[in-house]
Structure formats: structure tokens, C-alpha cells
Design brief:
Blueprint (H helix, E strand, L loop, with lengths): L16 H11 L16 H12 L2 E10 L6 E7 L3 E10 L8 E6 L2 E2 L5 E5 L2 E10 L6 E8 L3 E10 L2
Parallel strand pairs: 1-3, 2-9
Antiparallel strand pairs: 3-7, 4-5, 4-8, 6-7, 8-9
């Protein structure tokens, strides 16, 4: 493969962008200047406080095990009584080549992208999806799909009591 010339290493801002960035930095009000505390812009400590708020949530872990011989999807119903950090793990045990298995995660019918982990040991393929549920809009069905000769699916159905 050939590297794209413009992506060979870290570069600084372009010459035309540098004066603009300097202007933005000079015009930015600071708390020391008596800027409006009711401004829609948040300071770094408030953002850190929000991060700590979600980091302090309990971690709830749920697992589903599938085999290549599973004839029906496996479902797990889960009721949450408070906002939580969620770890969903699906595992597929198969005698086939693990490299030939495609893994996908969905919420309802929407593909969740590639922000999940995949790991393999001997004849077991593991996948883990981690996210945070803080409101009822994030409830619903989260499914892992293993596609080889036939599709295997595990679904975690979340509903809330808060």
C-alpha cells in the first residue's frame, strides 16, 4: 500500500488558518475578565463534572451465549431502575473458522457502527458493546449478530422504571 502524501505526519495549522485561530483566542472572554456566568458556553470544570456524573453510574453487565447449532435467537429482558453504564457481551461457540464470522450490533433496526470490541479464543468469538443509558429514549432492543453460514442473534431488551 501507498501512504497518502498529505497524511504522512502531524502538521500544524495552515498559514491562512493561523491568524483566524489567534483572533478567536484573543476575542474569547475569560472568567477573570468578568464574563457572563449565564453564558451558553460551559467551562472545563462543568464538563468534567458531567463526565464524573456518568462515570459514577453503576456498571451493569449482561451476557448471551450462542452456538452454531442454535436454532432460535436468544433474548434477555432487562429492567433498569436507574441510569447505568451497560456492558453487553455476546459469545458464539463454533467449530468453523472464526475469521469467517461477521459481527454486527444493532439498536432496533439501526446499525450501531464499529464501536464495539471483538475477541476470539480457540473456538469462541466474543463481542462486547458498552454504552450508557440515562433516559427512556435509550431503552429498547440491542442485538448482536453473528453471520456465518446462518445468522445467529442475541437480543437484550431494555425497559426502565425510572
Amino acid at each position: 500500500m501507498r501512504a497518502v502524501p498529505s497524511l504522512r505526519g502531524p502538521r500544524g495549522p495552515t498559514p491562512r488558518l493561523l491568524p483566524f485561530l489567534c483572533l478567536l483566542a484573543a476575542a474569547r472572554p475569560s472568567l477573570a475578565d468578568g464574563s457572563d456566568p449565564d453564558s451558553p458556553f460551559t467551562s472545563l470544570p462543568v464538563q468534567e463534572e458531567m463526565m464524573v456524573k456518568y462515570d459514577n453510574l453503576s456498571v451493569e453487565s449482561y451476557n448471551i451465549s450462542l452456538t452454531e447449532h442454535s436454532s432460535m435467537p436468544v433474548e434477555k429482558n432487562i429492567t433498569l431502575d436507574r441510569p447505568s453504564n451497560i456492558q453487553l457481551t455476546c459469545q458464539l461457540t463454533t467449530s468453523r473458522d472464526l475469521n469467517s464470522v461477521n459481527v454486527t450490533w444493532k439498536k432496533g433496526d439501526e446499525i450501531l457502527g464499529d464501536n464495539y470490541l471483538i475477541n476470539a479464543t480457540e473456538n469462541i468469538l466474543y463481542t462486547q458493546y458498552t454504552f450508557t443509558i440515562t433516559n427512556s429514549k435509550q431503552m429498547g432492543s440491542y442485538s448482536c449478530f453473528f453471520q456465518e453460514e446462518k445468522e445467529q442473534r442475541g437480543t437484550f431488551n431494555f425497559r426502565g422504571q425510572y
